[in-house]
Structure formats: C-alpha cells, structure tokens
C-alpha cells in the first residue's frame, strides 16, 4: 500500500539536466541553486530611506535603474521603478526574513528562494548563445558589467545581468527565471548553444 502522506523532498530546479561532454568548449552553464532570493518593493516615498538603510545595514548601494550592485554575499538588481531582485549566497529562505526585519518599515519584502531558478553562463560563445535567446543587445559596449535587463528568453520572462568577467577574461552572465519554467529554459539554452558546445559545471 502506498504511503498516503509522502514526504516532500527538495530538489534543485535543474536536477538531472546535463550537457556535454565536449572538447569544443563554447559555453559553460552552472546552476546557482541554494541562493537566497527576495523581491524588494520600496514603500511610497521611501526610496531614499531604503537606500540609507541598505547602506547602513549591509554596506551596499541601492542601484537606481536597471543596474546591479554587490557587496559581500548580497547583490541587488534593479528590475523596475522602486523594485529590486535581491540575491544572497547565504541564508536560503531565511534571507528574506532577515531583509524583512531590517528594511520592513521602508519596503515590502517577498521570499522568492523557491520561486526562482538562477543559471550562470560564461565562455567565449556566451554572447552568441544569448543573442539567440533574448532580444537584448549584449555587446560589451552596450551591455556593460552591472547592467540588468528584465526581458524574455524564448517567450519566458527572465531577468538577465552581467557579472564581472572571469579570470580567463570570458564574460559572465546570470539569468533568473521562474522555477516552474526551469526545464523549458534549460532546453532552450541547450539548443541555442548547440553549435558551440555547452557543458555544465559547479558554481
């Protein structure tokens, strides 16, 4: 007889999805599972107060417009007027609660740690791959380090940002997508990078 109350077990959004092996490395893709993720919406007329609170409590500047700032384990990506996507390499679901306790008077905070999946893409052919996925000019003169775009990838809503280049000089990007669309996005990314070869790596 089957268990009427099965235990739910958490699994990474891209579990079981792999690419490669390949000797013609063009794009490296890694799952950023385990990030603490939260959306921040400034309360009416409180953006300046929110910026001050983030500066005092987290030593991070609140980005204005579609830009990303980072300090230590925390990063903020501007996604709209008075709206940011916050990520942290620490805390998981506890991250949003920490934010809420710190800035709840000046902003609304919503935990998205289980709602979003994030992938990191890098390599010499990463831009060629992104050009097939997103309607955004990702040329380095146009889409600079720290730039953010709320856009679509293969008809799926995503948030894209550019990180500092890797030690090998290759450009690096991260893409946040709704977790329920992780498999669909993975297949779209694999198809877009097929001619260049794509391999998975631990982030």
CATH class of the largest domain: Alpha Beta
- In total, the number of strands is 11
Number of DSSP helical runs: 4
What's the average pLDDT? 88
CATH topology of the largest domain: Gyrase A, domain 2
Shape: globular
CATH superfamily of the largest domain, please? Probable tRNA modification gtpase trme, domain 1
- How much helical structure, as a percent, in the residues? 10-25%
Q: How many domain modules? A: 2
Architecture per CATH nomenclature, i.e. the level-2 architecture of the largest domain: 2-Layer Sandwich
Q: In terms of per-residue confidence, which ranges show pLDDT below 50 for 5 or more consecutive residues?
A: none
Largest sheet features: 6 strands, mixed
Structure description:
This protein is an alpha+beta fold. The chain has two domains: 27-33 and 115-200, Gyrase A, domain 2 (2-Layer Sandwich); 36-111, Aminomethyltransferase beta-barrel domains (Alpha-Beta Plaits, 2-Layer Sandwich). It has helices at residues 47-58, 94-103, 126-133, 182-192; strands spanning 27-31, 36-42, 68-71, 74-80, 83-88, 107-111, 116-122, 148-153, 156-163, 172-178, 198-200. A six-stranded mixed sheet has the order 8-9-10-7-1-11. A five-stranded antiparallel sheet has the order 3-4-5-2-6. Strand 4 and strand 5 (83-88) form a beta hairpin. The longest helix is centred in the N-terminal third of the chain and has 12 residues, at 47-58. The radius of gyration is 18 Å and the shape is globular. The termini are far apart. The relative contact order is 0.22.
């Amino acid at each position: 007889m089957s268990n009427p109350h099965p235990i739910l077990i958490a699994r990474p959004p891209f579990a079981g999805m792999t690419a490669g092996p390949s000797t013609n490395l063009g794009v490296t893709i890694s799952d950023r599972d385990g990030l603490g993720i939260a959306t921040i919406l400034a309360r009416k007329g409180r953006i300046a107060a929110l910026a001050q609170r983030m500066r005092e409590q987290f030593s991070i500047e609140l980005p204005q417009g579609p830009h990303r700032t980072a300090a230590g384990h925390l990063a903020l990506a501007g996604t709209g007027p008075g709206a940011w996507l916050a990520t942290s390499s620490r805390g998981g679901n506890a991250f949003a609660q920490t934010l809420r306790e710190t800035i709840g008077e000046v902003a609304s905070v919503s935990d998205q740690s289980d709602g979003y999946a994030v992938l990191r893409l890098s390599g010499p052919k990463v831009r060629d791959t992104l050009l097939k996925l997103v309607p955004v000019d990702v040329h380095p003169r146009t889409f600079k380090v720290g730039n953010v775009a709320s856009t679509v990838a293969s008809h799926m809503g995503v948030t894209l940002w550019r990180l500092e280049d890797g030690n090998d000089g290759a450009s690096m990007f991260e893409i946040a997508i709704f977790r329920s669309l992780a498999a669909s996005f993975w297949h779209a990314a694999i198809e877009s990078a097929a001619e260049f070869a794509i391999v998975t790596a631990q982030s």
